[in-house]
Design goal:
Length: 333
């Protein structure tokens, strides 16, 4: 997992996470890189390249976006916010170099400027009111977790911003607290939780539905990988899905990211483990990509460690897709 340069915890990791349930914590996520895209053509430019609909959004818009390959596999996963004069996209440093290079190569004759911004990501989590502090951009994140606000602040002012927040009663917490909440919200980190075959529909939280914008807008087109998104949405289901695992806390060792999930007797791989972290309520938990036919009614293990798919993380079944229903009607005639 990408965590270079930031604190994993400050001596009380479970207490730091629990403080978000009833108060507010601030998590330094400055290991992420921020890319600024500006200019009159920026909305249309990004809209043609990424999975999110960005050509007509207003200042303050916040969501995520994916860069897919021609087969619909996820190459980059960025969080997005629009200010009055620019889009800001932040993502793990391990993805940032290739993503920045891709965007810059696609400029051609567009009136767009693409460059890395000297900004740091500072995340607030909690059930209490967030204090107001100066930031280049503020993003209220709509995700399946506790209230979250991302602040993009000048790197040179990061320490002062944290001090201001602490003086307002916010507790400083390490990345472990954020990671536990991220796992509970079923939000993946590409390098740890996905592989080179991962497609958007394997991660239900990435698909924009209802009040959650996700990272994929289902009513836009004209971006690389769109055909795979449309085909899975209308005709079938992904063979794997991202879920949360409950891990046997009595085991002497915990699973490692990338480890295979099997039945109790071993045999065929049924999935792979991603992020593993200790949670203040659930103990050891993990994200995992698991085959749909292994989601229910089957014992699962990672080596000698027993794991269980958390029932609350199972995807909602949406019934028969429109495209599949039309095919079935044609076959029945």
């Amino acid at each position: 997992m990408d965590a270079t340069g930031v604190a994993w915890h400050y001596g009380d990791p479970l207490g730091e996470q629990r403080a978000a349930h009833g108060g507010v914590i601030a998590v330094d996520r400055s290991h992420r890189k921020v890319i600024r895209v500006s200019g009159p053509d920026a909305p249309g430019f990004l809209n043609t390249l990424l999975s999110q609909k960005l050509d007509d959004v207003a200042s303050g818009f916040a969501a995520a976006a994916l860069d897919l390959d021609i087969q619909g596999r996820i190459l980059h996963h960025a969080d997005v916010v629009l200010t009055d004069d620019a889009f800001y996209l932040d993502l793990p440093a391990t993805q940032a170099v290739t993503f920045l290079d891709f965007l810059q190569k696609m400029v051609f004759w567009s009136q767009v400027e693409v460059a890395e911004a000297e900004l740091a990501v500072l995340t607030l989590l909690g059930d209490a009111e967030f204090p107001t502090v100066a930031a280049e951009a503020t993003r209220d994140v709509q995700w399946a977790g506790i209230p979250r606000r991302d602040l993009l602040v000048e790197r040179s002012t990061l320490t002062d911003t944290v001090a201001t927040l602490e003086s307002a009663g916010v507790r400083l917490a390490g990345l472990m607290a954020f990671t536990a909440e991220r796992v509970r919200a079923l939000e993946p980190e590409k390098a740890t939780d996905l592989d080179d075959k991962s497609i958007p529909h394997e991660i239900p939280t990435l698909i924009g539905r209802g009040d959650l914008p996700g990272a994929v807008h289902l009513e836009k087109g004209c971006y690389r990988g769109q055909e795979t998104v449309a085909r899975v949405e209308n005709l079938g289901r992904s063979p794997r899905v991202l879920v949360m695992l409950q891990i046997d806390g009595s085991a002497p060792e915990e699973p490692e990211p990338g480890a295979e999930i099997t039945g109790p007797q071993g045999g065929r791989a049924l999935g792979r483990v991603g992020t593993v972290v200790h949670d203040c309520d659930f103990g050891p938990i993990a994200l995992a990509l698991v085959r749909r036919n292994a989601l229910e009614g089957q014992e699962l293990c990672v080596g000698s460690v027993s794991v269980m798919v958390d029932p609350s993380s199972l995807p909602e079944e949406r019934g028969e897709q429109a495209g599949r229903a039309a095919i079935n009607r044609l076959r029945g005639n």
